[in-house]
Every structure is written in C-alpha cells, then in structure tokens.
Amino acid sequence: MIKAATGLVIGFVALATSAMSAFSADLKPVKFSLDWALQGNHAIWALALKNKDFEKNGLDVKMDRGYGSGDTVVKVAAGAYDIGFTDINAVIKFNAENPDRRLTAFYQVFDRTPNSIITLKKSGIKTPADLAGHTLGSPESDSSRIMFTAFAKANKIDPTAIKWVSMAPNLRETLLVQGQVDAISGFSSTSVFNLIAAGVKKDDIVVIPYAENGLDLYGSALVAKPDYIAKNPDIIKGFVKATVAGTIALLNDPASGMAALKANDPMFDEKLEADRLAYLMDMGVLKSAAFAKNGLGYVDPDRMALTIKTNSEVYNIKAPAADTVYTTEYLPAASERMPPK
User: Fold this and answer.
1) Residues 75, 81: contact at Cβ < 8 Å?
2) Domain 2-112+219-336 shares a fold with domain 115-212
3) What is the mean pLDDT of residues 254-281?
4) What is the tally of helices (H) and strands (E) in the chain?
5) Of 88-97, 138-147, 172-181, 251-260, which range is least confident?
C-alpha cells in the first residue's frame, strides 16, 4: 500500500480486493519503497500492480511512498524495505562509507539524473556561477543536495560560498516562493511542478540541471541488499520483468498510468503528473536514445564508471568497485526490454 503525505495509509483498495483471490502461498511478499510521494513516473509500478504484472511473476508487492533518496537508501540498507527506488549517486556514496551495509542497483530506471538547482527569475540566478553568496534550501537527505559538492566542483563554485537551509521535504518549494531561500536543490521534475501547482508561472521558474552542467550522470535505479539479491534471484528477476512491463505500458498510454494512481489517491492531479512525466521523457531521463537502442534498464559500463569516479573524487572516498554498485545479471534479453517507438 501507499502511504499518503498526511501519514494516512491509502491502500490499493480496489486493486487489492480484485486480486485477493489470486493471492496464494506461492506469491512472495516484497516491501518496496519509492523515493518520494506519488508522481507521474511512479505509475510504472502502479500499472504493474493494476495489470497484475507482479502477480504474474510470483510477487505480492506492497509499495510505500518515500521521503527522499537518501532516506530510502538508509531504510533499504536497514532492512525496513526489500527493494527501493532511489538515486544511484546516493547509493555510491553510501556504499563507500558503509561497505558492510552496501546496496546493489539491479535495474537502471533513469538514464539521466534530474538533479537540479531550481530558482525563480527574481533571484537573478541564471548560471551555476551565480549561486555564490546565495542561500540554498533542501532536506538534508535530498540526493541533489548530497551531490551538490560534485556540481560545485564541476562548475568551479566554492562550496563555502553557499549557505544551506534545511527543511522538511513538503516545505521546500513553499520556502522558495516565500523568499526564505534564494534557490532549492532537488529533482527538477519534482520542484518545477510543485511550484506550478503552488501558482508560480512556468516562465518564472529557472532550472539549472546538473546533467547539462558537467554532471551527466546516471539517475535513479532499483536497489536491494546484496544478500537479499543472492537469496532471492527469482524475486529480483520478477520485479525487473514487472517493472519493464509497467514502463512499456506507461510509455504506450501515459493517461492510463495517471488514472491508476488517481484511483488510489483522490488528491492525485492527473494533468499535472502527466505534464511531469512528459517533462521527464523530454529530458531523456525515462525515455532515452540509449534505452531505445539497447533496451530499458541498459547501463553503459564506461558511463557508470564515470558516475562512480565523480562521486568518489568529490567526496574524497575510495571508489567502490563497479560490481559492488550495480549488476545487469537480472535483466531479461534486450528484445524483451525494448520501449515503444
């Protein structure tokens, strides 16, 4: 089930009711955490649930909202969840600092990071260099904040010239609108549309994407503990297959994905989230040339090596070996992962 922002539990009631008779002792339970509150791209798994793709692969999946990529990493590493959807960059840093608690990415969902700095025109901030001397805000566990040191290095910004303000995730855009911070860090696909929902005109929003300013790194992936993966290869393979099916269904019919989420959260804004999803696809995050050529979940070893190297240099940590960060062992054949044209 999905936990709403209010803390109340909103279950996939209709879904669970219709599927209850199909559940059996053969279905393996899986606790799955998203990275954030329900958004358009999360329809991948809402459709996998609605279309019973998880059940077809022997899984009984319970999905909860997340509270930031850093938080999801910690919770999966602690065993509170079996599988998490989180930023690969947050995983790399965590693994280097916690080699005995590390996680392994087994399916690359985002081909590009949507980590960004977001501000308003009135701030006068237009480029990375303009950030010096300004106040930035974000939750401490936000992956964009975690990665800001790398962004600063790539753009020759003195990190000490930035003042950070921490806040609860649901206050980030509000404090920007109120002028209590000059800019915020976050996924642009989150913050831009939260600002629009708050009444800010799209033309008044300025986005400085990390990927277009020296950090064209991989984005969010599905992760689990290595021992969980080793003990449950069929669960991992099934989860990947269901994710591929959900992604293809979403790319074929985005409206059905928004409806799947709306059915389980009356407050879900289908129009806003459809726009958010289109934004992610336009950015080359969820729908990319690499995925079109090589199949969903494809990982370029050289580009992943660069992602790992960038993190290690910025944080002055020993670069974890690539095979301790990710694996492609559980991917179906490329022909089974091809996105719609």
Assistant:
1) yes
2) yes
3) 94
4) 16, 12
5) 138-147
Pairwise CA distance, residues 106 & 151, whole Å: 26
Vertex 256, ends 254 and 262: CA angle to 5°? Answer: 110
How many whole angstroms separate alpha carbon 147 and alpha carbon 116? 10
Total-model pTM: 0.84
- Between CA 133 and CA 37 the distance in angstroms is 32
The domain defined by 115-212 folds into D-Maltodextrin-Binding Protein; domain 2 (3.40.190)
Contact 159/188 with Cβ under 8 angstroms? no
Distance CA 248, CA 109 (A): 12
For domain 2-112+219-336, give the CATH number. 3.40.190.10
Is the pLDDT at 227 greater than 80? The verdict is yes
Q: β-pairing, 135-138 with 163-166?
A: parallel
Token pair 């969840």: residue: 81
CA 281/CA 19 separation, integer angstroms: 31
Query: How far is residue 64 from each of residues 11, 84, 179, 267, 289, measured CA to CA in Å?
Result: 10, 10, 32, 16, 30
User: How is the chain split into domains, by residue range?
Assistant: 2-112+219-336, 115-212
Backbone angles phi, psi at 22, to 5 degrees: -85, -20
pLDDT digits (tens, 9 = 90+) for 62-76: 999 999 888 999 999
Q: How far is the C-alpha of 65 from the C-alpha of 35, rounded, in Å?
A: 7
Query: How is residue 78 annotated by DSSP?
Result: T
